[in-house]
């Protein structure tokens, strides 16, 4: 499997490096180690044998036309991801006793999430009427002066690699919260990075999810305009024209640690950015712990008041 710390393939049996073996996939997918059938989903390209734990890649899902162009290899190890989760959520009030226990954290798995990355050549034009208001007092009179300005801005920018996740299973909002990744560390894809992890190929073609990339580009353009039109009391008659011309797409894989915890019939999912360590999720709350803590505080307060009343009675 690929070791993020050593940045190379490491054999879990002998400790050797870069001694992996290429075995053609078959249907159904059979584990080369124990012979068990591995249940792969429609878009899954890398996974783990549920019987012996061996990680396998499907060569029919990691090569053309499904293979990735670029990849951000995992930098955060599983142990480091566990510590990130404990630091982020472990001290929250009323969490269940088994939450983030060593046993439940065995379910933590590294997943490469598929992304489409879009390049745009963008032109932006903005026009508005801006006002500046100043007031002053002279004698016993108050004066106000309003000045009007024609405001115009134009921008030409090249966007490279605007990311949009292409996984149906992964919530779009969650992946947006996982950002930003440091895309300067993108590397040419090599299948070795998938070993020891789960992975998907893209679930949707690039044209299907491109509107989300267009929306990101437009937001970036509007943010730029806003940053250059400060200092006015108001802006009216605003006209914003935005033209994003697609110049290229790439298929990339981004690293995410996924932890799923089930509590009182509900699934709670937590995510750790496999490159930066950023955590996303909402922790469960144990009502029994909340009631117990409330009772404990009430009891302590009662004892304190009772002791205080006895002391006052003695005095």
Structural class: alpha+beta
SS field, number of helical segments: 5
Low-confidence stretches: 290-297
Number of strands: 12
Helix content: 10-25%
- Oligomeric form: single chain
- Strand percent estimate: 35-45%
Radius of gyration: 28 Å
The overall average pLDDT, rounded, is 87
Shape: elongated
Distance between the termini: 75 Å
For the record, the count of structural domains works out to 2
* SSE arrangement, N to C: EEEEHEHEEHEEHEEEH
Any overview of this molecule?
- This protein is 23% helix and 36% strand.
- The chain has five helices and twelve strands.
- The strands form two sheets. Strands 3, 4, 5, 6, 7, 8, 9, 10, 11 and 12 form a ten-stranded mixed β-sheet that branches.
- The longest helix has 28 residues.
- The termini are far apart.
- About 3% of the residues have low confidence.
- This is TFIIB-type zinc ribbon-containing protein.
- Keywords: Membrane, Transmembrane, Transmembrane helix.
